[in-house]
Amino acid sequence: MATVEIKELHKSFGDVEILHGISFTIPDGAFVALVGPSGCGKSTILRLIAGLEEITSGEIYIGDNIINDVEPKNRNIAMVFQNYALYPHLTVAQNMGFSLKLLKKSKAEIERAVQHTAEILGVNKLLHRLPKQLSGGQRQRVAMGRAIVRKPQVFLFDEPLSNLDAKLRVQMRAELKALHRRLATTTVYVTHDQIEAMTMADIVVVMRDGNVEQVGRPLELYDKPVNQFVAGFIGSPAMGFLPATTKVGSSEMVLSDGQVLSKPTCAALDGGYIIGLRPEHIQLGGNGASFKATIEASEQTGSETLLLARLADQEITILLRERFDTPIGDVQTFVIDPTAVQVFDSQTGARLET
Amino acid sequence: MLRRKQFWFAIMAILPTFAIFGWVRLFPIIETLRLSMHEWNLLSKNKPFVGFQNFIELFGDNQFMDALTNTAVIAFGAMAVTIPMSMVLAAIIYHRTRSRFSGFYETAVFIPHVVSLVPAAMAWKWIFDAKLGPLNAIIMGLGGDALPWLFDPVLSVICIIFLVSWQTLGYGVLIYLVGFRNLPKSVFEAAQLDGANGFQSFLYMSVPLLKPITLYVSVVTLISGFNVYAQAYVLASDTQGAPGRQVRVLVLDMLENSFQNFRVGYAAAEAVILLSIVLLLTMIQFGLIRGKGGR
Amino acid sequence: MSATDRARRTNFLLDVTLFVICILLLTPLILLIANGFKTPQEMLIWPPTLFPKDPTLENFHKVFTETPLLRWMLNSFLFAILSTVAIVATSALAGYIIGKFPFRTINIIFILFLATAIIPFEVYMIPLYFQVKALGLLNSVGGLLVGYLVMSFGIFLIRQNVIASIPDELLEAARIDGAGELWIFWYVVLPLLRGPLAALAVLAFFQAWTAFAWPIIVMTRKKSFTIEVGLANFQSAYTVDLSLLSAASAAVMVPSVLAFVLLRRNFVEGIAASGMKE
Asked: Which pLDDT tens digit goes with each residue over B187-212?
């Protein structure tokens, strides 16, 4: 069983604490994405699982074994680095076979394993090349091949797609997902790109400044973010936030410029709050409770229109799934389903159930 | 217009340096090549042209061949000792970069290189002294026989190899340290995850990745080895002045031929041979680097 | 044992090994200095003592008052300083020209400089000796200097630095402002080359200070010896006095080592630069 359990993990570099007590569990065979802005500690957690850094306090379990003091090579894990870290002086075949060579496997066995893995990844024609003769995508595959050949219990990926161009990234995302389905190995995937996390992972862990903000399925994070940070981090384009006030008993939320939005249903709220509007939930409209915003910028992608608008002295983004031509400076009317509005506590940022 | 002005400035500015250079470098080099094909005994005005006779004679000259052999043995011997030792030492020092002693290590290792040749040779002369030196004292203390370090033909060459290696070690460590610092860290982490221990990392990763540096240090130590002179001069006698065995090295033979045997053309021919060896080594180095870089 | 403890133990063992190796490397020099403090009689004892039983300053006193050691040091120092100045001056100017004035003639000159860089001085020093003799400069610092006025590597080093850290635009802006070429060199280029010039100065000084083959043929009179040559010939004049010899060697050695320890950064920079020219 290759479950990975992180318990109360603390990590300090000198006097600076980077991780402040991280805990979460990764089920066997799951694809888990660690996502968050730069510096949140996600790569550090990965390196702690790998054994490349020392744990300050807390425990990491793989299966039933606590691995805090186990050497990296004995943890039965494999890692794909952001810059691939291929051995520049070895051929593709030698790169992939290196771990087996250290295990003193026979030449025939190594060749078989390397050949098999190379075929899965489509690099079997490149076995005699050196890394500098490969393209970015090919190097990526070789790096994965090197990890796969060892048949580890856990795969660790450290932002593997960030060095690839956009088109290749989309293609590799699908391939990685397919690979995971085929190999069914527990995978921990670090990225700063929330789209990657949302599309590839079974479970997403959102981190900020050394703390876990939320753990859950991708759609859970989208529909029910636990706080303002997660709500703003997940989803692209990002959710817009506006201060609003409301009174108990009233069905309205009042924005700072006096405009009124309908309260999300069943909300017994009183006082000042932050409301969140997802760009894709805002529609053109006129009927019912609507609001006016001034258009500041407009981008047409062919099938969608991305508008930057000013509402109640805040800038919000609006994503329309249609072409909509409007001059800058115009005031337009928009509407949003009240149930799609999210409400956050203005002090703590926590989302309030509606 | 501006360009012309710049051109003349450049020419004028570089003229003094080039003139000096021509006088102290170009002219002597050409003179050496020229003299090697002539015979000159320092005194007469006559310098008859003799073609390649000097060279032919050299290869039949026992003293020269002796010098050539000794010098080659010293050069390659010193290289063979220096390269592995400085690589390993640099690896260890690099590994302990974060230790508060790292400054001490780097300094200590480099001091032998900084100490000028003669005092260093003096220090070793005493150690190697057959009658008074601590080396023989230790050997005898361990039950062995005292050895005539500076007198025996083979042992004296070994002494010089030792001395030269001791001096060159610091330089090698320094260059290798720079090399280690430029190695990609993530490659070593990947190796660690693949299961390599410290020694395997060194053998399979560091050594191959440091090949360009190894090549450079090899050639540099070889070339300076072929030019060895001061060490042979100083170690020529033991500490009591008793004439020991002066190890014949190329430069010594050359100077002897020129100033003691009054055969300047002959000495020049030796110089040309020395030059050819150095050029050959340099070209091999370039060739090997080019070979690896290409493909 | 935890991973941390294991790492700590390995580090400790490595530190011990390194310490031992460093001490071993320095032992010959330590012994040399120790010998300088021994009485001449003690030097003849067998088995030899490591540290003096009756340390005496007599040797050092003798070395500085009765031998030409001080004079030799002065000669070496003068020679080294003058050589350093010459090399820094010629390298700075030539390196700048070659780096920023890529005319064909200049490039040919550069190739000539480069080509001769790998030829060791010992190869062509004999004809140069005759030049010096013809000029009547034997046994003088001037004669010594002749061999050490330029350093091909120095020119190369400055050229590399000039190309890497002095943008063309800076020079063009100065020219447009009406500055003369010499003014530009003195007030714009030189200040930017402070680091590499310092490293070069250290390298040049070291090269001149430790020169042996050239000084030994150019200087034949004892009074004009440089320190290296003087020390090497010491043994013939003061044969049996080993402790004196050691004291003299120690006296020569200690200043250079001290200088190194103080100027380590510049030194290391210069040597590493020579290594990275590939």
From this structure: 999 999 998 888 899 999 999 999 88
Q: Residues of C with CB below 8 A from A71's CB?
A: 3
Domain that holds residue C195: 67-237
Cβ neighbors of C186 (< 8 A, separation 6 or more) are: none
* End-of-domain residue from the set A187, A216, A233: A233
CATH code, domain with C132: 1.10.3720.10
Does residue B50 fall inside a structural domain? no
Tokens of B121: 């040779």
Domain match, A260 and A225 both: no
C131 neighbourhood in chain B, CB within 8 Å:
23, 27-28
Residue A228 sits in the same domain as residue A258: no
- Identity at C43, one-letter amino acid code: M
CATH code for position B168: 1.10.3720.10
pLDDT tens digits along A22-74: 999 999 999 999 999 988 989 999 999 998 988 999 999 998 888 888 888 88
Q: Which helix (H) or strand (E) holds A347?
A: none
Tell whether the model's pLDDT for residue B242 goes beyond 60: no
Is A106 buried (19+), middle (13-18) or exposed (0-12) by CB count in 10 A? exposed
The helix (H) or strand (E) run that includes residue C92 is helix C69-100
SS3 A7: strand
Tally of structural domains, chain C: 2
- C-alpha distance from C121 to closest chain B C-alpha (Å): 9
Q: What would the two tokens of residue B156 be?
A: 């004296």
Chain C partners (3+ C-beta pairs within 8 A): A, B
**Structure confidence at residue C277 (pLDDT):** 47
Which residue of chain B is at minimal alpha-carbon distance from C267? Answer: B114
Residue B246 domain-assigned? yes
Partner-chain contact A79 B186, CB within 8 Å: no
Interchain CB contacts (distance < 8 Å): A and B: 53
User: Containing domain of residue B230, as a range?
Assistant: 61-293
Is C175's CB within 8 Å of B2's CB? yes
**How far does C171 lie from chain A, in Å, by closest CA?**
38
The token pair at A182 is 């085929």
Residue A306's domain comprises: 240-352
Largest Cα–Cα distance of chain C, in whole Å?
Answer: 78
Q: Which of C57, C75, C90 is the last residue of a domain?
A: C57
A85 with B187: Cβ contact below 8 A? yes
Dump strand ranges (E) for A225-312. 240-246, 252-255, 260-262, 271-277, 282-284, 290-300, 305-311
Chain-chain contact of C25 with B108 (C-beta, under 8 angstroms): yes
| C1 contacts in chain A (CB < 8 Å) | 69
Number of domains forming the structure of chain B: 1
Helix axis angle for A166-183 and A136-148, nearest 10°, is 20
Tell me, yes or no, if B98 comes closer than 8 A to chain A by beta carbon: no
pLDDT band at C92 (very low <50, low <70, confident <90, very high): very high
For residue B252, what is the nearest residue in chain C, using CA coordinates? C213
A267 plus A147 within the same structural domain: no
A135, A260: one domain: no
- Domain for residue B273, yes or no? yes
Least Cα separation, residue A99 to chain C (angstroms): 21
Are residues C197 and C85 both part of a single domain?
A: yes
Residue C105, chain A, CB below 8 Å: the answer is no
Domain annotation covers residue B44: no
